[in-house]
Amino acid sequence: MSKTSEYPSMKSRTLTVTHDIPISKTKIYWDGLKDGKVYATKCKKCGEVYYPPQVDCSNCLTSDVEWIQLFEGTLETFTQVYLKPQGFTHYEHNYMVAIAKTAGGVKVMGWLEYIDVKVAKVGMFVKIAAKIMPDGFPVIIFKPK
Amino acid sequence: MRRVAVIGGGNSKFGVRSDATFPEIAFEAVKEALEDAGVTQKDVELSVVGTVGSRLYEMYPAPLINEYTGFTSKGPIRVEAACATGSAAVFTAYNAIASGYVDTAIAIGVEKMCEVDTATSTAVGGRGCYLWEFHMFGTSFACYYALFATAHMAKYGTTEEQLAKIAVKNHYYGARNPKAHFQKEITIEAALTSRVICWPLKIYDCCPISDGAAAVILASEEKVKEFKVQDPVWLEAIGFGSDTGNLTRREDYTSLRSARMASEMAYKMAKVAPSDIEVAMVHDCFTIAELMAYEDLGFCRRGEGGRLIDEGQTWIGGKIPVNIDGGLKAKGHPLAATGCSMIYELTKQLRNEAGNRQVPLKRYLALAHNVGMTGQYCYVTILRR
């Protein structure tokens, strides 16, 4: 694991960490991704819209929300990742991370369906979809319209 | 609030420090700081230890750092504010003295990042918003700042060449700093043709992954007199700011609101204007971060950061010399060490002890801008001698 060096070193004992993350309160969101849909939440009391979705309203402190689907947006910015972090090195393509603003005002992060960075443009319209990758992890996909 | 001065500073060599453990590199910085201040551990009442610690084999590093540097009975308070941890340590030590709680305190920033491989370090670092960003999209800090670079380029016409010019400047000064991780100059061509990390950022747009430590000793005005400190550097103001944890909840991607908040607060407290500042250390974890700092700190108007570097205004001899120690870009960015290292360098500058990197000063006013994550935290500190 450590970098090779002229100095002597020794290996630590291995620590493997995987978390079981509770999703009871946001299950609609995670299930939606399996169906290709991306949801935000809207507070029934004060009308605040949240993306990422949350069932507790940070604004009025109530916990009664409705789920609203996000369909499309315009690109605010994007990048293409060449140096991938651990957990993503098995993906062969250099994925493109982007942020799109929806008509309702909330912004969504997603992977921009591969196009050349010279072709991608801030302001471009994208459809917001989702899928499960072959390794079982979900991802949101932006498809240029 | 009582006045607080920096009475000493120390900085270990930054770089891949495979020769030393985290307490051992902390020792280098603390020893230099104590000798610089002309005091011993018993003169210091409180120890504040800043370390992010996420790449360490040790999960509770502060007591070990404190013990190894001879401060066992003096705290520690451990602080963490991502890449702004060093400034959070200085802020904590400052407040303990300003409030009258203690008369002397040390802020120690230590980070050991190179004991794990790059993919692991990038993954640990990228987990700044795990559930909604990293889990699905494999974000990293290079990725986050690349998103800001793309937006800035689209809105203001900022170019990859302008970003490269910032790297060239910081490598030029790093080559003159014996404590810097990288001590070699680079050319614009080399920067522009270097390996892409996260488009449009290339490897020369990114700070290295470094090990290092820095420490500063602070004292009340009474103690400054008692210790007969010849040239105290006064902490005139520390402003703080913050922004959303989720990047999708930001107003835009061309500026850091936390930096604007922190600098407005600091300028107001110190009763100075951006044009009064004569030398600045800014948080150039990526070249775009330095360019945004020019604008967020008011050294130029929004959208004119590219022009400021084109005109050479942030070199020594320009309107506002920036990162003339090499910055995070060339000196290195051992997370928690960075904020303390900025104060260390500015203290040297304000005492006219910076040698071949000395900025000619008239007003003796300096500024440090230390950002945590992508603007989730920011501290802006103004110093005066």
Write the layout of secondary structure elements.
The complex is a heterodimer of chains A (145) and B (385).
Chain A: H1 27-34, E1 38-43, E2 49-50, E3 65-70, E4 72-81, E5 96-102, E6 107-112, E7 125-132, E8 138-144
Parallel strand pairs in A: 6-8
Antiparallel strand pairs in A: 1-2, 1-3, 4-5, 4-7, 5-6, 7-8
Chain B: E1 4-11, H1 22-37, E2 46-50, H2 62-68, E3 77-79, H3 85-98, E4 104-111, H4 118-126, H5 130-137, H6 141-156, H7 160-174, H8 188-192, E5 196-199, E6 201-202, E7 212-220, H9 221-226, E8 233-242, H10 257-270, E9 279-281, H11 287-296, H12 305-310, H13 327-331, H14 335-350, E10 365-372, E11 377-384
Parallel strand pairs in B: 2-3, 2-4, 9-10
Antiparallel strand pairs in B: 1-7, 1-8, 4-7, 5-6, 8-11, 10-11
What descriptors fit this protein?
A: 145 residues, mainly beta, OB fold (Dihydrolipoamide Acetyltransferase, E2P), 2 domains, 5-stranded mixed β-barrel, 3-stranded antiparallel sheet, 6% helix, B: alpha/beta, 9-stranded mixed sheet, 11 strands, globular
Characterize this entry briefly.
Chain A has 145 residues and is mainly beta. Chain A is 6% helix and 36% strand. In chain A, strand 5 and strand 6 form a beta hairpin.
Number of strands of chain A: 8
What is the strand tally of chain B? 11
Low-confidence stretches of chain A: none
Please identify the structural class of chain A as seen in this structure. mainly beta
- What's the alpha carbon Rg of chain B, rounded to whole Å? 19 Å
Name the CATH class of the largest domain in chain A: Mainly Beta
Task: Give the fraction of residues assigned to helices of chain B.
Answer: 25-40%
How do the strands of the widest beta sheet of chain A line up side by side?
4-5-6-8-7
Major sheet of chain A, described briefly?
5 strands, mixed, barrel
Order the strands across the largest sheet of chain B as they lie in space: 3-2-4-7-1-8-11-10-9
Quaternary structure classification = heterodimer
Order of helices and strands of chain A: HEEEEEEEE
User: What is the residue-mean pLDDT of chain A, rounded to a whole number?
Assistant: 94
- Termini gap of chain B: 19 Å
Radius of gyration computed on alpha carbons of chain A: 19 Å
Strand proportion of chain B: 15-25%
Under the CATH scheme, which class of chain B?
Answer: Alpha Beta
What fold name stands as the CATH topology of the largest domain in chain A?
OB fold (Dihydrolipoamide Acetyltransferase, E2P)
Largest interface: A-B, 44 and 49 residues
Estimate the helix proportion of chain A, in percent.
under 10%
